[in-house]
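#struct-help
A.M.: can someone run this one for me? Single chain, 152 residues.
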Amino acid sequence: MVPEEIHKHYLLPSALFADKQSYLVDTVLGSCVSVCFFDQKLKLGGINHYMLPFWNGEGLASPKFGNIANEKLLERLLRMGCQKQHIVAKLFGGANQINTSINIGEKNVQIAREQLEEFGIRILGESVGGTVGRKLRYNTGTGEVFMKFLSK
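D.P.: on it. Structure tokens below:
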């Protein structure tokens, strides 16, 4: 029996990804955050990569902003047949790489936590904060995330 080939996708900043087929999704995070959603019953997942925490209502409501990216990804999974009560999340990124008092990374993590609580979605795991970036590989068919820290 030949193993089924898994598809691959590179997730750029300000984007989100979900598909009914299994994918290995790669992305690289600094102060940006990725939320990985996974429906434990359907074995179906999705991931986003956002740069800023909150869209203020001006310009385009794009997944560049956490509050938009998290909501849009959840909506996409629900349209694909997922049910909120079966969805769990993993959270990555939010590093403070440039050592500023603004700390966008921390705010990016905070909006994810607030929204996941509001959605009623449990966080199963996370690697957030610090001062170094992360490289992720998310398997949308198993919910597994392989992460490594980037060297300075």
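A.M.: thanks! The domain at 7-149 is CATH 3.30.1330.200 (60s Ribosomal Protein L30; Chain: A;).
D.P.: also worth noting: The longest strand covers residues 23-29.
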